[in-house]
Structures are given as structure tokens and as C-alpha cells.
Amino acid sequence: MKITGIIAEYNPFHNGHAYQIAKIKEETDSDYVIVAMSGDFVQRGEPAITDKYERARMALSCGADLVLELPALFACASAEYFARAGVALFTRMGCIDYLCFGAENADLSQLNKIAGILADEPRSYQDALNRYLKEGKNFPAARILALKSYLSAESSDAALQTEQLTSLLSTPNNILGIEYLKALKTCGSQITPYPILREGAGYHDTDILLKNASASAIRQTLKQAGSSGSSSGSAPDFASFSAAMPQEAFQIFSEYLASSTYLEADDFSGILNYLLLFYPAEALACFADCNIEIANRLKKNRSAFSSFTQFAALNQSRDITYARMSRIFTHILLHMTAEDYKQAKQLGYVPYLRPLGFKKSSSDVLGEIKKHTDIPLIGKLANARQTLSDDAFWLLEKDIFAADLYEQVLAQKNRTIPRNEYTREIVLL
Amino acid sequence: MKITGIIAEYNPFHNGHAYQIAKIKEETDSDYVIVAMSGDFVQRGEPAITDKYERARMALSCGADLVLELPALFACASAEYFARAGVALFTRMGCIDYLCFGAENADLSQLNKIAGILADEPRSYQDALNRYLKEGKNFPAARILALKSYLSAESSDAALQTEQLTSLLSTPNNILGIEYLKALKTCGSQITPYPILREGAGYHDTDILLKNASASAIRQTLKQAGSSGSSSGSAPDFASFSAAMPQEAFQIFSEYLASSTYLEADDFSGILNYLLLFYPAEALACFADCNIEIANRLKKNRSAFSSFTQFAALNQSRDITYARMSRIFTHILLHMTAEDYKQAKQLGYVPYLRPLGFKKSSSDVLGEIKKHTDIPLIGKLANARQTLSDDAFWLLEKDIFAADLYEQVLAQKNRTIPRNEYTREIVLL
């Protein structure tokens, strides 16, 4: 039995995602594709466009066999933690053959070379990185410069001392890909990395562009449709992004949007504003990705708060990206501290497997996992307190809190009754 | 120099309040009237209709000479704590002659008799009270029944064994009055209690009724005016309550309402809902007026939450009044625990005097207070950290938090920039 793992957000699921699943099955002859998917909050530090069950349903309807939830703590973390947790999850399953990921550049040797440097962190690379950070560069920019400087000192590798390095490190897919490779190295995983080149990238024909729209382009289209309506709550123009999604996923997505509004970061503005007032700077500094300088700045600027996204943009700076600021806000909302990350790391990142959904026809893959894994597979959430260690349950509670908060704010916006995470059904297709 | 103290909310200031100030000055020949007023959250567990500075301005423009803030911890507490703190504040000033309060029944001897029983809590009264509480009566109801049962056993006092007792204990003014008398006894205060009969009570002529409308009737009128408008944010019909307020107070109130919206408890719904999700039942149980049974009920009912007031009404019960539930919610929002009350009690309830405003022409009363008081008078808030003990500053920080939260939610609603409590000016008239 050959099994491939994919770490994803599917926010929402689109043609590129379907292509990746089809391609990996075809190229590696995989019997099953298992997805480790973020829950209701995503890596950018925002609520997902639909809840995790809907996103799991889209994935299952378009080729995935099983969708597991990536713990919330890591789903809205920096790329390094996000990738590390995803790789840990697949490695601990004990039966995954390939880790498939999208890349703008599928040259595995180049990606691996960079991952090797980042995993080993040779002294001269570290020195260069610290120098650029001290100069006030943000982390992604400083890392590119430090890699360049390290590689240019290695005369043997002129091939990477070019513009190519910048482009290699400037796309989210490649950055994540390199983090996956780094994580596989670091935890000595037996899983084979399998990058797949994004289809259609480079083409400029409008139709192709639409067919290959990214998840963020789809979200953007949706938001523009929502805000351009003359009255509040007008139905978004579904047709404008139907071409970008597989038919089955589009069906699920449009039905969801017809029956429910979708959440945006700004729906959490009031709560965030309260918490920024409530916590003293010293407490804010303890949340993951924050520090005392940022905390003091947030306190100082508080009177200029008008919304989550406006305040994230206001407080970003040369050395703090918007995404980091947005993640800090989400860590505050979800109460995720730097200490929590340390603790979860000690638990091996992912101390449980939690299915969000699976295809009935693929149910024997669950048996295969149970045979090989060293961590519990959560069936009914209500039984988790009995079957998990206290430590593991502590991490699971963060997933439950994130899901309940998402539901609560969504229900307030929809004027419906929030569903309780404990009583929601796993998606069976 | 004769000085009278009044404990008040002025939410908003109306004819009855003006009458009380004029009457006490006239009857006692007082030189100055000092008001201990709640800040931005009031005893019912709700935000005040206008912020505390506006309410202080109304009072000063209608006869008060100095307005001090009652610490937020006690301003939104049960009648007992509210009264106790107000009496402590005036007693610690060391120069107050009279404590004036409104009453439906100005027979001091009757009020005093009841206050005496409540202060001493004789065994048979206690037994009766506990019996009624165990039967599931709420506290106010159980107290009336216990007093009746105690007094009926005292055959000498047939006068109070009537309907009169119920009516005596059924109006908020009398209940507070009795609490003031009880507090004066308990803390051995030298201040003379001075009840003033509410003017106009009992008259049914419409004009008189309007002229004697209560603060809650004015708030009700305002809310009805607000919700009956065809479009959102239509200006309330000021004329409908102008007759109930002195000209000067009406002027200030209507100018405020023309430039700003007003806050209601439901403006805090989103934050409250978050906090009810965030805190485990054990933590909710620690907030003042709450307990583990109530906390469990709040957690259990959480999915039926749609707003602050709806959820307070939903969770009230035979033994828990709406006002108590609303106060619990405000304690959660303002993070006021049962432990905080204990700690503040040990500080002598009110460990500082904080003027919200005063009449320039009455400024020598400040000198008189400074001469007699044993607690610091806060001039500039920015200097308070230096002049107050750590304990006292801890209590003051709760006032600052309450004010900043009020401002923040108001500013979000008004789409303006919130004012910072540290930079607001004391009202000088």
C-alpha cells in the first residue's frame, strides 16, 4: 500500500489542489492521499473562509482519502512551525511514503541544498542572518540575503548566486517546500519528498489565469463581490470563481456561501481590541511571535485601533511583516503563548491524529495507520479526555477552543445558534 | 462649614436629583454638597448612559459642588457593597456632616429599626433568612420575609408587621437608604443620616409624572426613541424627556447625545460571549456574585447566547435576579473577582478620593477635605502611581480599566478615536 501525505489549508480548495492530488496519484501510483489540513484559523493568522469541515468535504470530494486536522497551535504558526508539525504528523503515522508539496520550481536538488543550509545553520550563515536582522530587515528578507552571502562565499555553487535564489525564496510555496525538506531532515523522517510544479504558472492567457487562480485570489474575488453589492449581504458572484475550482468543490463552497456568511479577521476586531486593553504589555509579550517591543508598540498605538486588519497594517514595520502581526493577534485571540509552543514541541509537535473526514471507500487506510502509528487516533471527540494523555488533551483543547470561537463569531454574524465542536460529525463521503 | 454628602449614579441627572440637592442645602443650611458618583458602569451591572465626566458636569451645573468617583469595583456591586463604599468614602473624608438620600418613606425611625436588624443580624433573623434562601427565594425576597418573621415575633412592634414593611423594602431608594443606615452603624460613622422624601411620588397627573420621571424612565424613553426611528441613528426625541430634567442638565445631556451615540449593555455582547467561552467554569465561578452553579449554567447555556441582556434574562431564575446576573456579566467584563472585594474591604473600601469635577467657586471645600482626610486626594491621574500605595493604585487601576473599556467600545460605535482616561480633564465649572 502506497500512501502520500499533503500538508494544506485548502482555503478554499481549487484546481491547483485537485491537480496536485491527481498528479501525485498518477506519478507515484499512490493508493491513498492523506491531507493534514489547518482547522478554522490559517497560517496567515486569520479565520479560514469556511469552517474546517466544509474544507475537508471539498478535499474529499476532489481526490483526498482522509483529512486530519493539523493542531491549531501549529496551523496558525510561522512557516517553520507549520511545516515542522505537518512533517511530524506524517512521520508519526509510520506508514507514509511520500510528502507531496507544490513548488514554483520543482528542482529538488536546489530546494534541498537550501534546506540543508537552513537545517544545519553553518556559522557563517548564522552570522550573516544576525547581521541582516540587526540592520532591521524582516526575517524572510534577512534569510534570503544571508543565504546569498553564504552561497557566494562557496565559489563552487555559482548556479545559485543569481536572481534565481531570490525567486526561489520569494514564493510561499517554495518557502514552505524548503521548510518541509528541512523538517524531514531535522526529524530524520523516512518519507520521500515529492515536489510538484504548479501547473499553468507563467501563462498569461486570462482563461488559464482564472483556471489557475490561487486561493487568495478566490478569497479576494469573494470579498470584492461582497463589498461591491449595493446593500449589505448581497450574494457574491459565484460565477466569477467557479472556473477556478473543481465542480465538486465549487458546489460545496457555493452552497455554504448561500446559507452562511463567511468570516474575516475583522469580525474579531472588538474582541481583539478588548484583549489589547486587558492585557498589560508584559502579558502581551508572552504570546507567540510577540516580544516586549512589539507589545509596547501595540499598547502605545491602541487608541488608533479601528479593526484587526487596519491595526495589523498599522503596526507592521520594516522588521515585522503584516503576516507576523496578524499571527500575533490570532495568538492573542486563541491564547497561544511562546511557552505553549515549547510545551507542544516537547510532546513531539503532534501527539494525536484527529480525522475531520474520510472517504468510506478508503476506510482501510485508517486500519493501516492504527497498525503503524505511535500516537492515538481520535474517534469520537467526547472520548478524547479518556484516551489522550493530559498533555495531549491540553493541545487538543486549543483546537476545540479555536473551533468554538470560530463557530461563535460566525453564529453571531449569521444570527444562528453556534454548533458545539463536541457534537459535530466527522465528514463521511 | 457644613457639608452634605450624596451617593448617586445620576444616570442621567433629573428633577428629583436637583430637588434633593436644593432641599438638603435649604433644610440643613449646608455650605457644600459633595457627590460620590459611580463611574462609567452602574450598580445594575450596565454601562452608564453617558460617561462619568458628562454626568459630573450635569450634577455640578445643578447644585453639586464637588463630584468624586466611587471606585468602579463598588459602583457595580450589590446594594450592600455600593452603600458601604459610599459611606466609607464620606466617613474617611473626616468633614462630612450629613449623608442625604432619597426615600419613599422618610420615617427615619422605621428605616433605622430595619437597618439595625440587618446590621446586627440576630440569630432568629439569620435562621429565617437561611430558611427562605434554601427554599429558593432570591435574596431581596428572602430578606423581606425574614424581617417580617423576625418582627412578628417581636409583639411590641406591630406597626411594622404590615403591608408597610413590604412597601418599605420594595423600592430601590429605601433599600439603598437602609443600606446607608446599616453602613453608618457598622463603621461607627459620625455622619448624620438625612433622608428626603421623593417629591411628587403618589401624584398621577401626567405633567407631574413627567416632571418626576425617574432616571430609568428617561433611559427607557431614550431607547424607545432610538429604536422607533425609521433609519439607524436617528436623533432621539429630546423634547420627550426635557421636562424631567433641569434646564442645565438637559442642555448638557442633549448636546452629548447629539454628538455621540450612547452605550448599552448589548454593546458588550461580543466580548462577553468570548469571555464566557474563554474562561472555564471554575474561573467564571471566581467572579464576584457568581458561584460554581451559576458558572456551570452559563457554560451549559452558552449556545443560546445572542446578547448581553438576552443572556442575563435567560439565566436569571427564581433565586438569581436579573440585576445580579447582569452584575456578574459586568464583573466578568471588568475582571472583578470575589477575592478583589475581599482585598478592597481590607483597604477600607475606598483608599483614595478622586474628583471628577468641582465648581471653581467651591474650591475651598477641597482644602477642608485635605485638612481632615486620612486618604490621598488624587489630583492629576498621571501622578497617582507615585502618590498612592501599591494597594490603592491596584484599586484605581480598575477604575481606569473600566473607563478605558467604556471609551473604547463607545469610540468603536461612534467610529471616533477613544479618549485615554489618563489625558481626560477634570470638569471645572
From TrEMBL, chains A, B:
Record EC number: 6.3.4.-
Compartments, record wording: Cytoplasm
Top EC class, one word: ligase
Gene Ontology molecular function: ATP binding; ligase activity, forming carbon-nitrogen bonds; transferase activity; tRNA binding
Keywords of this entry: ATP-binding, Cytoplasm, Ligase, Nucleotide-binding, RNA-binding, Transferase, tRNA processing, tRNA-binding
Pfam families (UniProt xref): HIGH_NTase1 (PF05636)
SUPFAM superfamilies: Nucleotidylyl transferase
Xref: InterPro entries: Cyt_trans-like, Rossmann-like_a/b/a_fold, tRNA(Met)_cyd_acetate_ligase
GO CC list: cytoplasm
Any GO BP: tRNA modification
Binding site for ATP: 7-20, 102, 173, 198
Coiled-coil segments on the chain, per record: none
Catalytic activity: cytidine(34) in elongator tRNA(Met) + acetate + ATP = N(4)-acetylcytidine(34) in elongator tRNA(Met) + AMP + diphosphate
Known function: Catalyzes the formation of N(4)-acetylcytidine (ac(4)C) at the wobble position of elongator tRNA(Met), using acetate and ATP as substrates. First activates an acetate ion to form acetyladenylate (Ac-AMP) and then transfers the acetyl group to tRNA to form ac(4)C34.
Protein family per UniProt: Belongs to the TmcAL family.
Record HAMAP family: TmcAL
Annotated protein name in UniProt: tRNA(Met) cytidine acetate ligase
Organism: Roseburia inulinivorans
